[in-house]
Amino acid sequence: MNRFALALSAGIARVTECALGPYQTAVVRIGFAATWLLFLLRELPHRHELYGPGGPWSFDLAQQLIGTNGAFTALIWTDGRLWFEVVYALAVLFAVLLLLGWRTRTMSVLFMVGVLSLQNRSIFMGDGGDNVLHLMSMYLVFTRCGRVWSLDARRADREQAARARGERVTDRVGPALWAVLGFVLVAATLAGRLDGDLTVPLILWTVWIAQAVWWVVGHRARTAEPRVLLDVIANIVHNGALFVIMAEACLIYATAGWYKIQGSRWQDGTAVYYPLHLDYFSPWPALADALSASGTMVMLVTYGTVLVQVAFPFTLFNRRVKNVLLAAMIFEHAVIAVVLGLPFFSLAMIAADAVFLPTTFLRRLGAWAARVRVRRADRAALPRPRSPENPEQAHVGSPS
Amino acid sequence: MDAYDTAGDARHGPGPEPAPRKGVAALSLRYQIAAALALAVVAVAVCVHIGMVFLHVAPSNTVSKKHGPAIEDWIYPEFEQNWKLFAPNPLQQNIAVQVRAEIREPDGGIRTTGWYDLSAHDGRDIDGNLLPSHTQQNELRRAWDFLVATHDNDNRPVGLRGDLAESYLRRIVVLRLDREDAAGPGGLVERVQIRSRTTNVRPPEWSQEQVSDKPMYRELPWWEVPEDEAEGDPA
């Protein structure tokens, strides 16, 4: 009993004192923002057909369906062509800013608004990749996903350095952004635009009020305690959301795996052959034929797929096995991207997988990316022979 | 889940001053109680959410049958999900959606076109394409699935969703016919008829399985195309 109490208090200390997995949440943030950004850019020529007021899933049809389920989309507010273009452009912008980690919390909310606005406008255009993105865009709002590898982290470093030099730091952008978005939120609420399902309005209002409280406490509180309490709450919420993200990834694999076990084609070892020969999923028929030329290979891949999907959640209890399976799954998704012609689905799944990547690997990746950047900057800076990894700059990606 | 370690040095004070970081231990009792309350609320919310999602993706069972409405309330519309990816069995048939149209010519005559294989067109667009568009890969395919799911065996729509599915599919085929310039100069698409052509994927060469290679057709009745739609262009 005593041991149990000790473990419990250690666990509580852990989830309250820091936001766990800073690199993992950052890479998930970057992964999903990049997936959505690339998708929007790729579909730029088709945007009207997919989500526009005059597309096949017309404004009128969307309105009727949303009338029954109350899903959130800003595109249902008006059928104006200009409004559609604005929303699409903003969705691109928010994806870029979330990727860079500029005002990360606010951008994560706006990113979610962009994702839901477009996806919920035409739900029959999406596939599994859109579904993952939809869920993760909501979960990301609750994480502190900009603590590393972000403009926010860089700004925090600079502010800290400035303060250490005794300078006063005032942030005007944050309150201005808050005020503008607050105006939009109040206007939308008063105009009855948020009268559908409660989930999204609740998230919007909660974050907006929380940011105000955060600012007031940070600037006005006389003791440190209220600030520490808010920090603790933010950590708790972050860790809860991180757990949900991991559980969601596990549920995806578990569902995909366990349902497959019941299928006769997954049992007889031929399942993988079939998607490769569907017209809608075979951009490279010759490659598909080559991959499925050997019955034994197809059977091994078929069984391997089920095995990995079913086993994955259980391997989380063993770091080494988990990492091997993770590598296998990321590789399989990379193959699916090309062979089945599902690049954005695969990218989204890899972004979700990334939450399980080990910290040491991610830090090495960050240091490597920083070195590449330094080298590029040096090359651009003319005759000076490039200095071998400047330890100062090698750290830009991983604030200490 | 302790499957990964945490970098303890990656913390940052988002507040204006670097706050002393000791977590709950640094707080007085009053604040500790508030933190404990927050922890409890978040813990419950996380458990409920994961539980709801689990019941939503799991097969129908004792608990989910009993609490069906509560689960649906929680999940729909924003947390809906379906992860039966190629499960329990992958699709083993190619389903092509084809359409033909009745065109009113400028001279008042009526002409019926041949069948356009719109899925084959999608297939050609996807071939050799590293980045297939949702318009090529999902639009028609999912519209047909939606129609099948919302129509009875006599091709009659069931409920509002059935009507929505018909309008949607009609608008897609009219758009595609327009791109093929099926109406010709001065012509107008008055009615369309859609059918699906289902063929089995031929079994692998290394298997002894035999399946019929004869296509099966499902033909929908002719639909009138509203006049404003016949000229419509989404772009």
Question: Any overview of this molecule?
Answer:
- Chain A: Its main location: membrane.
- Chain A: Residues 17-361 form the HTTM-like domain.
- The complex is a heterodimer of chains A (400) and B (235).
- Chain A is mostly helical and 400 residues long.
- Chain A has two domains: 19-152 and 170-220, no CATH class; 256-395, no CATH class.
- Chain A has 17 helices and no strands.
- Chain A has helices at 2-17, 22-42, 47-51, 59-69, 81-100, 104-121, 128-140, 151-164, 173-190, 199-220, 225-261, 264-267, 285-291, 295-315, 319-339, 343-353, 359-380.
- In chain A, α2 runs antiparallel to α16 (343-353) and α11 (225-261) packs antiparallel against α14 (295-315).
- Chain A is globular.
- With 235 residues, chain B is an alpha+beta fold.
- Chain B has two domains: 23-75; 93-230, no CATH class.
- Chain B contains eight helices and six strands.
- In chain B, strands 1, 2, 3, 4, 5 and 6 form a six-stranded antiparallel beta sheet that branches.
- In chain B, α1 crosses α3.
- Chain B starts with 28 loop residues before the first helix and ends in a 5-residue tail after the last helix.
- Residues 1-20 of chain B have low confidence and may be disordered.
- Chains A and B meet through α1, α2, α3, α4 and α7 of A and α1, α4, α5, α6 and α7 of B.
Topology (SSEs and partners):
The complex is a heterodimer of chains A (400) and B (235).
Chain A: H1 2-17, H2 22-42, H3 47-51, H4 59-69, H5 81-100, H6 104-121, H7 128-140, H8 151-164, H9 173-190, H10 199-220, H11 225-261, H12 264-267, H13 285-291, H14 295-315, H15 319-339, H16 343-353, H17 359-380
Chain B: H1 29-57, H2 62-66, H3 68-75, E1 93-104, E2 110-112, E3 116-117, H4 118-126, H5 134-137, H6 139-149, H7 159-179, E4 188-200, E5 216-219, E6 223-224, H8 227-230
Antiparallel strand pairs in B: 1-2, 1-3, 1-4, 4-5, 4-6
Helix pairs in contact in B: 1-3, 6-7
Summarize the main sheet of chain B: 6 strands, antiparallel
Principal-axes geometry of chain A comes out as globular
Specify the helix fraction band of chain B.
25-40%
Order of helices and strands of chain B: HHHEEEHHHHEEEH
Q: How many beta-strand runs of chain B?
A: 6
Strand content of chain B: 15-25%
Q: Work out the largest interface and the residue count of each chain.
A: A-B, 129 and 101 residues
Structurally, how many domains make up the residues of chain A?
A: 2
Domain HTTM-like (chain A): 17-361
Main location (chain A): membrane
Keywords (chain A): Membrane, Transmembrane, Transmembrane helix
Protein name (chain A): HTTM domain-containing protein
